[in-house]
Amino acid sequence: MAEDYFYRYRSLAGESQEWVRRSILHSQHYFSAPFSFNDPFDCRPNFTLNGTKDQLVKYYEGVLARCCPEMSRQERRADARRRVSDPESDPTSTANFAKFRAMYHEQVTVKVGVLCISEVPDDLLMWAHYADSHRGICLALNRNDPFFAIAHPVNYQKLRPEVNPLFDTHEEMLDRSMFTKSDHWSYEKEWRILQYKSGAATYTLPTEALAGIVLGAQIDPAHEQLIVEWALASPSKPWVRKASLSNTQFSLSIA
After folding, report:
1. pTM, whole model, 2 decimals?
2. Is a pLDDT exceeding 60 seen at residue 85?
């Protein structure tokens, strides 16, 4: 079953219940800004500007070419050299580098919207952390729907990724920033879908994206009834199954 779907663990506590209702009945999902994530390292790479003065000048020339296309090549070169030579604007100075790094982190952690999904529906920690200690649900999303063709797996490693605008393209920096996490989180088997332009907001997925709903092993009976009612009213007609505790192992069964 697992290989056919992506999964999204959801709590039913407080305001989260309304978000679940909107996801089931209207295919609406909130893409969150990374600054709200529970991992303080998430989307915060090791930002550097290690390079020669000539490489800094070349970088600034590229920035000026994008933001000031009316400038000639000679004007861009002269302005770039001035910026790098002036202590007030030299990006490698301690104060300016701190501002530069903070600006980059804001671009990534505040202005990008992220939908986090998983390959697995039965991870005990995922149920505990994201589904209110097994009292919530897990949405099963149709992995074969064209919408999920843009989903990208998260890479897990021991060292923080390094980004350096002097050598890396904008796409390379975003890729390392958004899709690299500590190997402490590898059990999540996470994939992500990003919204760069519109940022954190509510987005409507295709109706067919919702294939099923897994009820938590400790879901409240009233919540269980509510989810079943929403599933019956949903235009996607998702199946509903329930997780149960194994009698012999520290694991869940879904049936």
Report:
1. 0.88
2. yes
